[in-house]
Task: structure prediction
Amino acid sequence: MKYLQLVWSAMFRRKTRTVFTLLSVVAAFLLFGLLDSVRSAFAGAAGSIAGVDRLVTVSKISFTLSLPKSLLPLIQDLPGVSRVTYANWFGGIYQDPKNFFANEAVADNFFDLYPEWQLSDAERRAFHDTRTGAVVGESLAKQFHWKIGDKIPLQATIFPQKSGANDWTFDLVGMFRLADPKQKAQESLLVFNWDYFDEARAFGNGNVGWYITRVADRTQAQQVANAIDALSANSDHETKTQTEQAFNAAFVSQYGDIGLIVGAIMGAVFFTLILLTGNTMAQAVRERIPELAVLKTIGFSNQSVLGLVLAESLLLILLGGAVGLVLAGVVVDAVRVAVGEAVPMSRVGGGIWLRGVGLMLLIGLIVGALPARRGMRLRIVDALAGR
Amino acid sequence: MQRSRLRNAGFVAVSIIVAALAITVLVLAPWWLLLALVAALALWMLLTRVGRQAWSVTEVGLATIPQRIGASSVVVVGIAGVVAVLVALLAMASGFELALRQGGTDDTAIVMRAGSQTEINSVLDHDSATIVTQAPQVLRDAAGVPIASPELVLVASLPKKSTGQDANVEIRGIGDRAWILRPEVKIIDGRKFGLGLREMIVGKGARDQFAGLDLGSTLKLNGQTWTVVGAFDSQDAHNSELWADNDVVAATYRRGSGTAAVTVRLTGADAFDAFKAGLASDPRLKVDAKTTRAYYTDQSAGLAKLIRILGITIATIMAIGAVFGALNTMYAAVATRGREIATLRAIGFRALPVIVSVMLETMLLALLGGLLGAAVTWALFNHYTVSTLGENFTQVVFAFQVSGPALSTGIKWALAIGLLGGLFPALRAARLQVTAGLREV
Result:
C-alpha cells in the first residue's frame, strides 16, 4: 500500500495516454455491464429459485394447444399435490401491437399459488367479486398510467366474444407487485377471471391452456409430474409436466443462445482491450527503463519492480473498469425508468460486479505480465547505459 | 498566456466541429462521392507541389510502420473488432428480414379471422374459407378452379440438434392447390406427401435445425405416427416448417373442418384492394386480408429493428474505445517522429503536408482494420444458420446475410474512426514548435 503514491504517479506520467487508455477501458466495461445485464435478465428468468415447487402442465404436442378442464379434479386428487390452478393465454392487444404485454385468463385461486405476487386482501376480494375484473402488475400499470377503476380495452387476437366482437373490456381492480427486483419483469402481466372468459368466448369453452400444480414436497416434484402425465397417457390430449423453472428455461432458450451471442461480442471487445492496454503498458515500461534501473540501484528487489508494474496495470484496468460498470449501472437504471421495469435488463448488482472485477483482475494481470517481466529482468548496468 | 489558452480552446472547438462534419459526410455520403474524393486527393498529390510533399511525408510515415508494428496493430485490430461486430449484427438483421420477406409477394393474399395478427391465432370455419376462395379476384386455373390453399398452422415440439432441447416447430397443413399457389417450392429429396395419408415433408431449414427429420424417419403427434417422406426448399420462411395434408393435420389435432387461414393467388397485384373491399363488405365474413408481402414484412419488422438498434449501440460503444486506442497510437507515432517532422518544417515543408500524411496513415490503417473485420465476419458468419422464436411461437430458421450494404456500412465506420483518431494527432504534429521539436531526443 505504501507504494500506491509511486504507482499512481508512474501511471499518470503521460497524462494524455493514460486518460485515453482509461477511456477505452471504460468503454469496454460499460459494454460488459450492459450486455451482462441483459444476459443475467434472461438467465434470471430461467434460473430463479421461485417456481421449483410449481409444476406446469401443458399439452405434450405444444403449449399452444389446450387441455380439457376435466383433468382438474384428477390432478387435485393425486398424492403429493397441494393446490392446482389453471390459466389460458389470451394474447389481447392494448391499443397497438407495439404495446405488447402478456395477458391471461386465470382461475379464482391463481394467486394462492403465487404467494410472491403481493396483492392486498381487499384487491383479491374485488377481483373475486368483479366478473370483468382484471389485476395487473405495478410496473405495467405505471407504464400505461392506469389506476384502479380504469377500464382497459383489449383487442382479441385469438378469442372473439360470442357475438363475434373482438373487443373485450376489463375493469382494473388491483395491482400486484413482486419484491424481488430480479423478478420485476413478471409484473408485465394482466390477468382476468377465467370464468368470465370461458362464458363469453366464442369457442374453446371448457378447455384450459395449462395447469399449475403446487407440490407439497419439492423433492417429490418429479414423481408428481410423472403421475400427472400418466393421467392422460395414450389419450388424445397427452400432457407434458415440468417444473415452472424448467418450462421457463426451455422457453427462453428458444429465442436463441443469448449467452453465446453476448460471449462472442465480449470476446471481441476484450481481445481488443488486451491488445490496446498491453501496448500502453509496454510503451510505459519502455520509456521508464532508466527509472526502473534507478529504483533497482537504490535497493528495490526484482520482485518489487515486478509488483510495481503489475500493480500499475491492475490499477489502470480496475479504475477504468469500475467507472465503466458504474456508468453501465446508471444507463441500465435510466433505461428501466424510461421503458419500464419490464425490459430484459437486470440491475447492475453484486453478480455483475463480481464477474466484472474478476475479469478486470485477469485482464490486468495478462496485460501487465510481459512488461513486468521485462522490468524485473532488466540489468542495471545495461539499462543505465541506455543499451 | 491567457490569450494563447483562449486560442487553444478555440482551435480545439473548431477541430471538433470539423471532425463532426467530416464524419457526417463520410457516413452519409454515397460511395461514388467518396471515390471522387479519393480521386481528387490522388490528383492533388500527383499534380501540385504541396501534394507531392504530402505524398513523400506519407511515404516516410508508412515506411516506419514496421518499427511501430505493435502500436499500429492496435488501430487495425481495434477497428476490426468494431466492424466485425457491427457487420455481424447487421447481417443477422437482414438475414432474418430476407428469410421472412421472401415468403411474400404482392399478388398473393392471406386471409385470417379479423383481429388475428398471426396464422397461429386465426381460426376460419369451413364456410368462410369457401366464400373467400370464391371471390372474383382470385385467379382460376384452366379448369376454372380457384388457386387457393386453406391452411392450418399448428405447433409441435421437437428436439433441436444443437441443444437437444425441445423447441417449437411449425406444422402447416396445406391444401392440394398449394403447389400451384407456390410454384417456387421444390422437392429436393424424396417425394410429396400422399393425400389423406399421415405423411409429411420437411423444410430444408427445419431438417437442419431439428433432430429426427431425415427421410423415412417417423414422429409421433398426438399419439399418431407420421412418416417423413420428403424434403422441400421454398427459399423463404416456409423452410422452417413441416408440411402435410390439411385434412389429416386437422383430424390429428381435432380441429374439425376449420382452417386457420386461406392463402390465395390474385388475378394481379392491383386486384388486392378490390379483393379486400369485397371481403370487408360481405356480412357473412369477419376476416382481415393482407398481401403476403405485408404479412411477412410485419412479422420481421420488430425483431430486425431491435437487432439493428442493438448492433449500432454496441458498435458505437466499441467505436469510442477504438477511437481512443487510435488516438494513443497516433499521438505516440507523432511524438516519435517529432524530430523528423520538425526537420521537415525547418527545411520549408508547409503544415498541410504533415497533417495530410498523418491523417492518411491513420485512415489507411483504419481501412485495413475495416477490411479485416469485414473479412472475418464474412468468412465466419455469411450464411451461418440460426433460428429464433418467430411470431407464430415457432422457430424461424434464417441465415446471416453479410450483404453489400452491411459491409459498406462497416467500412465507412472504420474510416470514420480512423478520421477521428488521426485528426487530432495530425493537428498536433502540424502545430509542433520547430525549435522545440528539433531539440527533442
Q: What stands out?
A: Chain A has two domains: 4-46+256-385, 61-237. DSSP finds 14 helices and twelve strands in chain A. The mean pLDDT of chain A is 87.
